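2024-03-11 09:14:02 INFO worker-7 job=invfold-0412 stage=load source=structure_tokens
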């Protein structure tokens, strides 16, 4: 009996379409089926996300290099990892300032708008610039632009997850500028990541170039973030 595929319109016999692989007879949607799909989605997400986060903590740089070498099945993909962590960071910062610090007036309302609506997009647009900097400083490493971009996406993901917890230090010291905590924390993590990632380059050279990259990126980040916030006022 000739059947028509409801997905692509191809006609054929059997149980599955030989053109797109979908079954000719669509299964009836049930509540148990929907619950299974939701469970499958979140268990798959948790395994990939949790494993990737663990590796970023215990093996920074080595994890990224392993991913580029082909060990990818167990990892959360780089852009989705970055997007999830950046979104978590932005919403967490907004929530912390708008609830925990609501009565302390430690932040301008414009900054709240930036964290809630623009922060994720802001950092996404900066990734190509940061990648270009890494490419210029480590052009002899053998990694191309896209591969260095993957390394930075994963590295910044860990930083985004840590940033809200560093921000909570203001609960104990209201006048604390957390940049003085974030910068050394990120610098140390960044250098360790680069030493493990560029394992064929002399350590002293990696440390020196990493510091240059961090300082320039930090300056650009602060300058552009202040510009965007002032533009929103």
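2024-03-11 09:14:09 INFO worker-7 stage=emit residues=233
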């Amino acid at each position: 009996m000739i059947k028509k595929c409801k997905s692509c319109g191809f006609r054929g016999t059997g149980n599955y379409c030989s053109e797109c692989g979908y079954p000719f007879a669509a299964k009836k949607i049930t509540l148990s089926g929907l619950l299974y799909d939701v469970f499958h989605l979140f268990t798959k997400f948790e395994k990939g996300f949790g494993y990737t986060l663990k590796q970023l903590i215990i093996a920074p740089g080595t994890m990224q290099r392993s991913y580029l070498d082909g060990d990818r099945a167990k990892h959360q993909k780089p852009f989705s990892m970055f997007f999830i962590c950046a979104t978590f960071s932005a919403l967490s910062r907004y929530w912390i300032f708008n609830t925990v610090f609501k009565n302390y007036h430690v932040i301008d309302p414009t900054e709240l708008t930036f964290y809630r609506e623009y922060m994720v997009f802001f950092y996404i647009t900066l990734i190509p610039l940061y990648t270009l900097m890494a490419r210029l400083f480590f052009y002899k490493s053998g990694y191309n632009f896209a591969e260095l971009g993957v390394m930075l996406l994963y590295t910044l993901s860990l930083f985004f997850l840590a940033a809200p917890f560093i921000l909570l230090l203001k609960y104990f010291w209201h006048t604390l500028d957390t940049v003085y905590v974030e910068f050394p924390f990120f610098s140390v993590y960044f250098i360790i990541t680069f030493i493990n990632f560029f394992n064929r380059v002399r350590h002293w050279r990696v440390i020196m170039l990493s510091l240059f990259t961090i300082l320039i990126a930090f300056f650009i980040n602060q300058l552009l973030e202040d510009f965007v916030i002032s533009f929103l006022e």
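2024-03-11 09:14:09 INFO worker-7 stage=report msg="The chain has two domains: 1-52, 59-232."
2024-03-11 09:14:10 INFO worker-7 job finished
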